[in-house]
Specification:
Shape: globular
Pfam families: Asparaginase
Number of strands: 10
Number of helices: 4
Helix content: 25-40%
Organism: Luteimonas soli
GO molecular function, one term: asparaginase activity
Distance between the termini: 32 Å
Order of helices and strands: EEEHEHEHEHEEEE
Protein name: Asparaginase domain-containing protein
Structural class: alpha/beta
Keywords: Hydrolase
CATH architecture: 3-Layer(aba) Sandwich
CATH topology: Rossmann fold
Length: 161
């Protein structure tokens, strides 16, 4: 892997809790810190594009993400994204030829103990290095085809269609 391109869009993985508001807000992207702490043996570059809950990501936001990734020379791309609309974004990114793109996120904020963020990121890093060009989702310890997966909101996990 020459250099991993990481593009961040927000989502639960980057949420922080504000006691005074009893509310979550999207904070700084966490993936760069996580990859540094894990001591990965590859170069990576983080491009933060959005800081949104995925329910608020628009068609224009998805086009900005698609155009940004398409314009970069990197062939291996990891996208952090909120889980609620990750599948919809993956379908838009599928129009980019010649790149392996893996979307991942977290069901609990990365700053929280017991978060699935580090595990999902690790799974996504392995996937982006070993899968052929195309778009994939790495969640819950599995690699999913975006056309064959959905988020089960009640069970709070991804599952086959």
């Amino acid at each position: 892997m020459e250099e991993l391109l990481v593009v961040t869009t927000g989502g639960t993985i980057d949420k922080v809790y504000f006691d005074d508001k009893s509310d979550y807000q999207i904070g700084e992207p966490q993936i760069g810190r996580i990859l540094d702490e894990l001591g990965v043996a590859f170069r990576f570059r983080v491009i933060p594009i959005l800081r949104k809950d995925s329910l608020h990501i628009t068609a224009e936001d998805r086009e900005l993400l698609r155009a940004t990734i398409a314009a970069q020379p990197a062939r291996q791309v990891l996208v952090t994204h909120g889980t609620d609309t990750m599948v919809e974004t993956a379908k838009v990114l599928a129009t980019i030829p010649g790149k392996t793109i893996v979307l991942t996120g977290a069901l609990n904020p990365a700053r929280f103990r017991g978060s699935d963020a580090e595990f999902n990121i690790g799974c996504a890093v392995g996937a982006v290095q070993s899968l052929p060009p195309g778009v994939h989702i790495a969640m819950n310890g599995r690699i999913w085809d975006p056309l064959k997966v959905r988020k089960n909101v009640d069970a709070n996990r991804f599952e086959a269609l």
